Amino acid sequence: MTEKQELILVTALRLFAEKGFDTTPTSLIAKEAGVSEGLIFRHFTNKDGLMDAIVAMSEERLRTNAERILQLTNPIDQIHATLELPVKLFQEEREFWMLQFSLKWQKKYKNQSYTPSPAQLKVIQALTDAFRALGYAEPAQEVKVLMMLLDGFSHQLALSPSPESIETTLAFLKSKYPN
Amino acid sequence: MTEKQELILVTALRLFAEKGFDTTPTSLIAKEAGVSEGLIFRHFTNKDGLMDAIVAMSEERLRTNAERILQLTNPIDQIHATLELPVKLFQEEREFWMLQFSLKWQKKYKNQSYTPSPAQLKVIQALTDAFRALGYAEPAQEVKVLMMLLDGFSHQLALSPSPESIETTLAFLKSKYPN
DNA sequence: ATAAAAAGTGAGTAATCACTTACAAAACTA
DNA sequence: TAGTTTTGTAAGTGATTACTCACTTTTTAT
């Protein structure tokens, strides 16, 4: 991965997140990255290839985050860490994760991105075990609900420009899963 | 609203939901609707105007659904009816609501669509009262959580191709808010 | 019946965009 | 250092697309 290759990637990421994939011309990516347009195609074949490279980055990052949850041993800690995930991700790399979320709704990437990755499956399994260990009657359903909360929470973080009282909401969510 | 005007609208709605706004040419809309391309611009000024007309339709439908919830008198019924909403909407008009959800992530419609409509605000107020009447300690936070669940649930309904056990999940969600 | 307004057509058109190509500079390799 | 591969550029190009315009048909009003 050359220096310019990375420059193209982060610039494309930013612009795709800001303007959307279809409404971001490759010419603009090149201009903002300070490279020639042809270079994009030399390295990434076509515009889709550029997006694929970004998606690959995201899968790598998701894997890292999944592993941090899996390493926890206390069931309650695992559940709380899962709830904290959206806040953490958006604080760290807002536009990167916004792009990931909007991607889910783009026809082209719908199928491949919503098939849960191996990492995601592992987390789901671990959380099911966690709920079981805590004595919940229907662990699988509990995980489903938790995932919905995660989606909804991320959604709120992503779309409200000034997310008021994030920490309060997070604390309230956690209180729904007491020790 | 002439016959052809409606034809254009429903065709555009379907195609936008299937292919996305940016990747649906007006020429295709015209072809599938069986009208000349020029007619689209006569009636809706430009492609954005066409989308605006669709969004207006959606706001009208949301208002109708909000009113049905507001008419309920029993607090638990209001909460349960809110939970049922996504299932109901997606059963009735799947592609219409899918378009609405994907719209939230399109930059252009982000600001205007996530400012809650008056109808939405009324429902939020009613639900807050409902939670208070039921003796919940933090009604406002409960409503926030409920809205997250709604988002996450819709998300799941929209993105999983064969949503297994919808009714089971719905029943489980309702059981979280017992009488 | 006739004028005026509205609905509808279809052939453009200018601009944009993803991608190609021919070539040059730089970095490796032997 | 000579040869080869890789990285990079600049100037196209053909296809697509949103939108216009000159025109005809239909509807409405008087």
Summarize the helices and strands and which ones pair or pack:
The structure is a homodimer of 179-residue chains.
Chain A: H1 3-19, H2 26-33, H3 37-44, H4 47-71, H5 75-103, H6 107-114, H7 118-133, H8 139-159, H9 166-175
Helix pairs in contact in A: 1-2, 1-5, 2-3, 3-4, 4-5, 4-7, 5-7, 5-8, 5-9, 7-8
Chain A binds a DNA duplex (30 and 30 nucleotides) through residues 2, 4-5, 25-27, 35-43, 46-47.
Quaternary status = homodimer
Parts with pLDDT < 50 across at least 5 consecutive residues of chain A? none
The helix/strand series of chain A, from N terminus to C terminus, equals: HHHHHHHHH
Spatial gap, N to C terminus of chain A: 46 Å
Count of alpha/pi helices of chain A:
9
What's the gyration radius of chain A in Å? 19 Å
Number of DSSP E strands of chain A: 0
Helix content of chain A: over 70%
Q: How many domain units of chain A?
A: 2
Structural class from helices and strands of chain A?
mainly alpha
Strand content of chain A: under 5%
Query: Largest interface, by Cβ-Cβ below 8 angstroms: which chains and how many residues each?
Result: A-B, 33 and 33 residues
The biggest sheet of chain A, with number of strands, parallel, antiparallel or mixed sense and barrel status, is: none
**What is the overall silhouette of chain A?**
elongated
Overall mean pLDDT of chain A: 91
